[in-house]
Amino acid sequence: MALYQKTMCALDLLLQTFISENKSMDEVCFLLQHAEPWLKSDEGLECRRAVQSISLLLQYVADVLKFTEEATPSMLGHQIGLLTLLWRDKDEVTRNLSCQCVHLLLQLLVLQKGRTVELPHVNRLKQWEVRGSREWQAKLYHTVKAFNETLTVAQHTQLVLSLLHGLGSHGPLRCDLASQLLLTMFQEPGVKPEQVAEVLQGLFRELPGIVFKGIRQTVMQAVSALGARHTQETVEVVLCLGHPSERQVLPLWKALATTPRLTREVVTQLYMKLKLRPPRLLGRSLSEFRPISLLALGTIYELLYVQEFRATVRWAFAGILLGLLTQLHYLFELGLLEDISDYPEDTLETKPLSPCRTCLEALKGLFWTTSYWEVFAHLKLLSGWELLEHPETYTDGVTLLARAMAQYNCEVKAVLGQAAISLKSTEERENVAAILIITECRLTRPGNTGNCGCQFLSSPEVFQHVSRRAVDNCLSLSLSNSSQLVRAMSLKGLSSTLMHPKKVALLRSQLLGLLDSFLKPEPKDITGLMEVLSHVLHRLGTQGDGAVSVKIAQHLLPLFEDEREEVRAGAIFLFGDVVYSGGKKFRQTLKGLAFQALVPLLLHQADPCPKVVMKAKFTFLRCAILLKWEFRKELSSKLAWGRGPGAENDIFIYMVESNFSSCQQFLMQALTYLDSPLQGLKLAAMKFIGGMLQDYFTDLCFYLKKGDVKILQKSFETLREDQDSVCRKFYLSFLADVMELSQYVT
C-alpha cells in the first residue's frame, strides 16, 4: 500500500512538472488525453484513480499557476464531456471528484480569458450534493448554462458529441444523464446553427447503439427541441442522412412532428425545397449528384403516410400540390422519363421508384391521405394519372385534376391562393401549373374526353374565395407572360362566364338550341352533339338551366343501350355531367334520374367495349356520390382497382345495401337486360338477378307485388329454351327460388 501511495504521489508530481514547463490549456488537454482510457474503464477503481489524479492536477493549476497564453483546444470539450458523464457513477468519490474537475476546468477557461466578473452558473457547480429530482434538474440547467458561458463553439460541439457517445453506454444511469443533458442543452439557446449538422450526424451514428427505450424517447425529445430552435438546418441535415423509410431516419422525422407549429415549419421547409433548382448537372448523373429538391420529394412522399404528419399535410395541401406539379414539370425538362410508366401498382413497395414516378405517386398520395378520395378515383377512372406520365399530355392531366378538385370542392380557396402566388414566379413551369389550375382550361387533343371548360371560373362561388378584381388582375398580368400557353390560358380565363356574367344567358340559349337538335328522332353526328353539349355544360358550371338538364338526362338513358359503342360511351359520360348541372332547384329530380340509371350503369361494367366499361364505372361512382351512399370510399376502390367476381360482388352489395328499400325496382330493371343482344350484359343481368334471389330473398318477398312475380316468371321462361347453355343452367339453378317466391308474394 505504501508503494502504491508513493507511486501515485510521483505521478502527481510528474504531471505538475509537465504543466509547469508548459503553462497552457493545450498542455492540460494533452495530459487529460492520456487519462481517457481509464476514465472510460468499466473497472471502478481505475476510473476513481484517474479522476483523483486529474482533480489534483487541476487544483494545482488553479492554485499555483497562471497561464502565460490563451489557448482553446477543441478536444477539451470532449474531455469535459467524459468527466460530466461520471456524475452518475456508482462510486461516490468518483462522482464528487468528477464534478469538481468540471468546475475547475471551466474556471480555468474563464481565468485564462482574463475575466474578473464571476459567472454564477459556473460557481453553482461547486455544490455537488442535490436532493430530489427538482434540485437535480436545476443542477443540469446550471451546468448547461455554464457550458454555454465558457466553451467555444468547437469545444461545445465536442462536448455534445461526447455526450452523444455516452448514450450507447450499458449503464442506464450514465445514459440517462447524457440524454437529460442533451435535452436541456437543445432546449436552451446554446447550440449554434453551424453546429447542427455535426451534432445530428453524431446522433445518427449513435442511434443504433441506444438500448434503453426511455433513453431513446428522451433523445427524440431533444431532437424535437433542436428542430424547434433550428428548423431549417435540422431539416437540411435529416434530409441528407438517408431515405425516410430507413429504420433510424423515420424516428427523427417523427420527432420533428411533436407540436403543430414545428410540424408546419418542417413541412413548409420541405415543399419550399422542392423549388430549389441546382445548376445544370454538367454531365453528372443523378446517381452521382442528388439535388436537394429530389431529397425533399422522396421525403414528402414517405411522410404523407406517417400519421404524425397527416393533419399538417392537409394544412399545407395547396403548397405541396403546386410544388409537386412544378417538380414533375422540372423532371420532364431534365429528361428523367425512364421507367415512369413501368410500375404496376402492386409492385410499388418492392421496386425502387424513379424521380418522376416518386413525384407522381406523391401526387396520388396527397389526395388519398387527405381523404380526397373522390378526386383520386375521378382521375383513376378517367386515366388522368396516365396523362401526367408524359410531357405531351401534362397540361391535360393538370386540367383534369383541377376539374376534379373543383367538382368535389377540394381545397379550392387555398389552391387558388397558392396558384396566384405561383403565377408571379419568374419560372415558367410554375406559371404553367398555376394558370392551368386557375382557368381549368383544356386544349382539346385526340383521345381526350372531348370537353374543355373553366370549372373554377364558371361558378360564382369562386367569389367566396377571391374577388372578381383580384382574378381580373391576376389573369391580365399573365397576358404578358413569356409562355404562349400561359397567355392563351389567361385569355380563356378572361373570357369565362365568371368574368362576363352576360355570357350565361347566351350559353343557356345555345343550350336550348342544342337540346332541340338532340331531341330529334335521328340527329346527325350524335356523338359530336354530345361533346358540344358537355362543353357548354362545363362552361355554365352550376349556372346551367335545370329544366334543360333534366330533359337531356331523360333522353340520354335510352342511349345507354345504343348498338354503337361510341354513342353508349358518350351518353354514359355526358349523363354524369348532366346530373350535376341542374342547380339546387332541380337537384332532387336529377337525383331520381341518377337512381334510375344505377342498374344500367352497373350492368354496362360488363360491356364488351372497354371504353364503355370505364365510362360506366366513372358515372356509376358519380351517381353514388350524388346520392350520398354510405360506402362511397370503398366503392371507389373496387371500381378503380377491383378485379374478378369478388370485386363485382362487393359493388353489388354496396349498391343494394345503400338502397335497401329499392330491391323491387332493381330487380325489374335487371330483368329487361335478359333480352340484351350484348352477351356480356345478359350474363351480368343473370348474376345480378341471381344475387338478389340468393342474398335478398326475404326482402324481395316483402317488396315485390304479384304482378312483379309474374314478370319474373315470364322472363325466366324465356331462358328455358335459350340456345346458350349458361342461360339454361341459370334457369335450372334459380327456378326453385322463383317458384318459392311466387308462393310467398300475394
From TrEMBL:
Keywords: Repeat
Residue ranges occupied by any Maestro-like HEAT-repeats domain in the UniProt entry: 48-266
A Pfam family assignment: HEAT_MROH2B_C
Domain Maestro/Maestro-like HEAT-repeats: from-to ranges: 473-735
Gene3D superfamilies in UniProt: Leucine-rich Repeat Variant
One cellular component term from this protein's GO annotations in UniProt: Golgi apparatus
Superkingdom as given in the UniProt entry: Eukaryota
Range of residues in the leader sequence: none
Protein's name according to its UniProt entry: HEAT repeat-containing protein 8
Organism: Tupaia chinensis
